[in-house]
TrEMBL record:
Gene3D superfamilies: Enolpyruvate transferase domain (3.65.10.10). InterPro entries: Enolpyruvate_Tfrase_dom, Enolpyruvate_Tfrase_sf, RNA3'P_cycl/enolpyr_Trfase_a/b. This is Uncharacterized protein. GO terms for molecular function: transferase activity, transferring alkyl or aryl (other than methyl) groups. SUPFAM superfamilies: EPT/RTPC-like.
């Protein structure tokens, strides 16, 4: 099971939120790949030891005019594809040798359409849906599960995934931005359409 890429998660949440967010990153290796991707989606991003992100607000991402190349930061792929699944945009993603196996059917269950190479390998295209479908998604690893929770933020009702070890730091990040998160009977649930807001204090990841 792949661990959740917390720096990428923090930056993606910042791009989804209203207002500005400061993110102090301890491990920035390859993270610069996210800057053009989030900028293409409409966020304003300034990289550095402390990243500064001005988000678009929930549901405010625009259709990117370039390939979102995450080859240098593959851990961001399940997170970004999850968020894109619940936005009415089409995006081309590249990430060498990254497979969406297991994640693709879950994203299609949300309502997204994906076209990828044999073996569910990127590069590929994801077309998000304007009418996301909430559900409980089971059997996913932590990173893919977190991607589905990001989709759930821009979906009606509640979206859930199986709770797995080491997911609590990621849930704390969701809460920092104002997401409604609960853990019930071994499952994590998020409420759709929260008013995500950039935290006033810098985030350390």
């Amino acid at each position: 099971m792949s661990a959740i890429d917390l720096p990428s998660l923090a930056l993606i949440l910042a791009a989804l939120a209203r207002g500005g967010t400061h993110v102090h990153v301890r491990d920035a290796h390859g993270l610069a790949a996210l800057m053009p991707a989030l900028t293409a989606l409409g966020a304003t991003v300034a990289a550095g030891e402390t990243w500064r992100v001005q988000g678009r607000g929930m549901g405010g991402w625009c259709e990117p005019d370039r390939v979102l190349d995450l080859t240098a930061r593959p851990g961001a792929v399940p997170l970004l594809t999850g968020a894109l699944a619940a936005h009415d945009v089409t995006a081309v993603l590249a990430a060498e040798s990254v497979s969406l196996t297991g994640l693709r059917p879950a994203l299609e269950r949300v309502g997204a359409r994906l076209t990828v190479r044999r073996g569910d390998l990127l590069p590929g295209t994801i077309t998000g849906t304007p009418w996301p479908i909430p559900a409980l998604h089971e059997g996913l690893g932590p990173s893919k599960g977190m991607g589905l929770l990001l989709a759930g933020l821009n979906s009606p009702g509640r979206t859930g995934v199986t709770m797995l070890p080491d997911m609590e730091p990621a849930l704390d990040l969701l809460r920092r931005f104002g997401a409604g998160v609960s853990v019930e009977d071994g499952n994590i649930w998020v409420k759709g359409y929260p008013d995500l807001l950039g935290p006033s204090d810098p985030i350390q990841v």
